[in-house]
Amino acid sequence: MEPQQRRVGLVPLSPSHTARSGDKLARDLRPADSSSSGHSKSDKDKGVNVQVLVRCRPLGEDEARLNTPIVISCNEGRREVSAVQSIANKQIDRTFAFDKVFGPNSKQKELFEQAMSPIVNEVLEGYNCTIFAYGQTGTGKTYTMEGGARKKNGEFPSDAGVIPRAVKQIFDILESQTAEYSMKVTFLELYNEEITDLLAPEETLKFVDDKSKKPIALMEDGKGGVFVRGLEEEVVCTADEIYKILEKGSAKRRTAETLLNKQSSRSHSIFSITIHIKECTPEGEEMIKCGKLNLVDLAGSENISRSGAREGRAREAGEINKSLLTLGRVINALVEHSGHVPYRDSKLTRLLRDSLGGKTKTCIVATISPSIHCLDETLSTLDYAHRAKNIKNKPEINQKMVKSALIKDLYSEIDRLKQEVYAAREKNGIYIPRDRHLQEEAEKKAMVEKIERMEQEAESKDKQLMELQELYNRQQLLTVELSDKLEKTEKSLEETEQSLFELEEKHTQANATIKEKEFLIFNLLKSEKTLVEQAIELRSDLKNAASDVSNLFSTIERKDKIAEGNRLLIQKFQSQLAQQLEDLHKAVAASVMQQEQQLKAMEQDMHSFVSTKAEAIENLRVQVGKLKNMYGSGIRVLDNLAEELKGNNQLKFGELNSEVAKHSSALEDLFKGIALEANSLLKDLQTSLQKQEAKLTDYARQQEAAHARAVENTRAVSKITMNFFETLHMHASNLIQIVEESQCTNDQKLYELQKKFEECTAFEEKQMLEKVAEMLASSSSRKKKLVQMAVNDLRESANTKISKLRQETLTMQDSTSSIKAQWKIHMEKSESNYHEDTSAVESGKNDLVKVLQHCRKKAELGAQQWRNAQECILSQEKRNAASVDTIIRGGMEANNLVRARFSGAASTTLEDAEIANKDIKSSIEHSLQLDRDACGNI
Ligand SMILES: Nc1ncnc2c1ncn2[C@@H]1O[C@H](COP(=O)(O)OP(=O)(O)OP(=O)(O)O)[C@@H](O)[C@H]1O
């Protein structure tokens, strides 16, 4: 029997309607202390931003193998995600800040505890909360929401996602508070803008595939909310039940193969958990607190062209995009506070209306990949998520309900369902209860009336619009006429203005002409006056000119007389010039004669100068020859000195060489002695080491024997241990058999219990149609009895099993004690072997110590010999130093002597050079004097 209870009904998604369903609520309430948490109204007033966190998955195995470059870095501390890429001239470097950031190494547990756990707590406080997973296909939306492997063998898997962890936390808290609560879950899929119930029984699903069946409908409740009619709600009592439901629903999720991800989920899924918790007011009134958690796994956000979906799936992709696009538009409208928010454009946004800008607390997990190949999609996801951060919701705690009112509500719901079941059984053509049919008909009628009314209103509005249009047209015509008139008037005004302007211009021109004429007359009068004055002046000038002309004639006469005088003068000058030229010719001839005589005298002087000069040069040549001889002798002296020095040095080097040869032979002898001693020492050492080697070989043989013994012993022990383990294995298989048997019996008993329970429930259902309230009490007592019986049975069988177990344990104890005895014998044997080995090791150690002492003595002897050799070398070195010192001293003295002689020879040479220099100087001066004399003569 399935522990959860199923019902089909109207499932509201808005907070105000969560309490409409839940027929098992009253039965599933558990005993508990009620604890209500306080609620501040500040959130309600201010509005709370949607919490956005980003999770980056690690590289997949294939990506890591191909060394795919990573372009995303997450700074969890600074809550930042950076995308950095530079290829050729394209440079991307963008950083986004979020409420929380989880890097590739983040664990499921961390993400849940840091970001999701507080949200779950708020659900238990009575809030409605929604968690979205948004991102490209394959970035880990489903991994984050649902996680890896399911719960196995009672262990909670470490990679369990948000949903199983949230469920666990809810149950843990409720159990710890021992609260009275009831819980129900729904799981739907939105695919091609069609809703599918993932919790519907198989038959219904088959029916859904049939085109004749209407898909599950999304209905307006007339109060701004929506509900999904016909959605299955499962009442759950344990976390395990939810895990099973989740697994069942996930398996049904439709997936389509795309080029990006073969397992890619192409649909949106919404998993909702609604919790009712009983609380008691101080006045003792029982209240029901309600909270809801929506967990939404969206389809991959990548665009359709990249996803590679074609033909048949084109519509699917389009519809998925329609929902995601509308989600984007809704986010944009909310962020930009534009008046119209297009919630109604897609089913996804209609369903999640309250989570986007409504009274729900919302958290968006944006999942991204670090790979370079997904960079474009990653950036668009980050942009999308970053924008969503600015959405403000106004979270409100759901109103608590009085328990009695809730029960009343539930009764009426039961009645309605009963009628539905009755109608379905009857199959009278109306597959819904008559009342509901009538109610729907009435609603439809009301709607039609409303539409008609609206149409009438629209018509009257149209009429008004037409009238207004006519009025407007008339006004337009009038305006056109008036504007024509205005135009004409404006034109005539313009013409008048133009002629006025022209007249004014003419007037100013006439004024100007008059002024000009006046000015001309004035000027004419003035010039007439000036002409008269000038005529008077001209007359006087004429008189003056006549007197001037007579003067001029007298001047011309004087000029003629002067010209005559000039001609006479020129003739006189000509004759004088001829006389003077003749005199000059004579003087020049005399001067040429004189010059010739002077040149002859100069020639004689030059001859005498050349002969004197030749004499002086001869003198100079003699002096230079002397000087050359002198330098030659000086250099020869120096050569002799150098020869002497060379001889000296060779002598000294010969001495030094013989000394060194003597020393080296002495050293050679010394080293030969030392080498002989060292050889004998080494031989000694070798013989002692050979002895030691022989001893060590003996010792190794002893050790080998000991090890062989130890191996033998270990084999014996392993045999014993094998026997022990075989016995253990036998007992363990016995135990497994016992456990399996007990499990079979338990299963059998549980099956019987389930059967009985089902029968009882069926019977009770019949009874409850009449007396639901009384039956509740009696049924619970009956169930208690039933359960008690089953528990007693289980206890009995458990007791028999335990006695069998005890028997097995005793047998095991026996075998353990026998093994203990064997082990003791083995230990004793091992101990004696150990002692033997230890003594052998001890004797080997003593031998080694002796050999070491011997070696140490030898080494000391060697060290003493080396010290002696060192002393010998030192004394030899001292002797060498002394002899080299005396040789060098002798050399130095000889050198000093040669130096003194050398400086004497140098000073005599210098004196000689001084005298020769003086001679040269005097002969040069003499030559110069001669030159000067010659110059004076010339
Ligand atoms: N944070 C993570 N750590 C380790 N593995 C991860 C992580 N996120 C995702 N994966 C692995 O990456 C693969 C794809 O993840 P998943 O199916 O959850 O992606 P998705 O976004 O839900 O894809 P789809 O849109 O197709 O549903 C899975 O094999 C999953 O195990």
TrEMBL record:
<dbReference type="GO" id="GO:0007018">
    <property type="term" value="P:microtubule-based movement"/>
</dbReference>
<dbReference type="GO" id="GO:0008574">
    <property type="term" value="F:plus-end-directed microtubule motor activity"/>
</dbReference>
<dbReference type="GO" id="GO:0072686">
    <property type="term" value="C:mitotic spindle"/>
</dbReference>
<comment type="similarity">
    <text>Belongs to the TRAFAC class myosin-kinesin ATPase superfamily. Kinesin family. KIN-5/BimC subfamily.</text>
</comment>
<dbReference type="InterPro" id="IPR047241">
    <property type="entry name" value="KIF11-like_kin_motor_dom"/>
</dbReference>
<dbReference type="InterPro" id="IPR027417">
    <property type="entry name" value="P-loop_NTPase"/>
</dbReference>
<dbReference type="InterPro" id="IPR001752">
    <property type="entry name" value="Kinesin_motor_dom"/>
</dbReference>
<dbReference type="InterPro" id="IPR047149">
    <property type="entry name" value="KIF11-like"/>
</dbReference>
<dbReference type="InterPro" id="IPR036961">
    <property type="entry name" value="Kinesin_motor_dom_sf"/>
</dbReference>
<feature type="compositionally biased region" description="Basic and acidic residues">
    <location>
        <begin position="20"/>
        <end position="31"/>
    </location>
</feature>
<feature type="coiled-coil region">
    <location>
        <begin position="675"/>
        <end position="702"/>
    </location>
</feature>
<dbReference type="InterPro" id="IPR019821">
    <property type="entry name" value="Kinesin_motor_CS"/>
</dbReference>
<feature type="region of interest" description="Disordered">
    <location>
        <begin position="1"/>
        <end position="46"/>
    </location>
</feature>
<keyword id="KW-0493">Microtubule</keyword>
<feature type="binding site">
    <location>
        <begin position="135"/>
        <end position="142"/>
    </location>
    <ligand>
        <name>ATP</name>
    </ligand>
</feature>
<dbReference type="GO" id="GO:0005876">
    <property type="term" value="C:spindle microtubule"/>
</dbReference>
<dbReference type="GO" id="GO:0005524">
    <property type="term" value="F:ATP binding"/>
</dbReference>
<dbReference type="GO" id="GO:0008017">
    <property type="term" value="F:microtubule binding"/>
</dbReference>
<keyword id="KW-0206">Cytoskeleton</keyword>
<keyword id="KW-0963">Cytoplasm</keyword>
<keyword id="KW-0547">Nucleotide-binding</keyword>
<feature type="coiled-coil region">
    <location>
        <begin position="407"/>
        <end position="513"/>
    </location>
</feature>
<feature type="domain" description="Kinesin motor">
    <location>
        <begin position="49"/>
        <end position="391"/>
    </location>
</feature>
<keyword id="KW-0067">ATP-binding</keyword>
<keyword id="KW-0505">Motor protein</keyword>
<dbReference type="GO" id="GO:0090307">
    <property type="term" value="P:mitotic spindle assembly"/>
</dbReference>
<dbReference type="GO" id="GO:0051231">
    <property type="term" value="P:spindle elongation"/>
</dbReference>
<dbReference type="Pfam" id="PF00225">
    <property type="entry name" value="Kinesin"/>
</dbReference>
<protein>
    <recommendedName>
        <fullName>Kinesin-like protein</fullName>
    </recommendedName>
</protein>
<keyword id="KW-0175">Coiled coil</keyword>
<comment type="function">
    <text>Responsible for microtubule translocation. May be important for the organization of phragmoplast-specific arrays of microtubules. Plays an essential role in stabilizing the mitotic spindle. Required during mitotic cytokinesis.</text>
</comment>
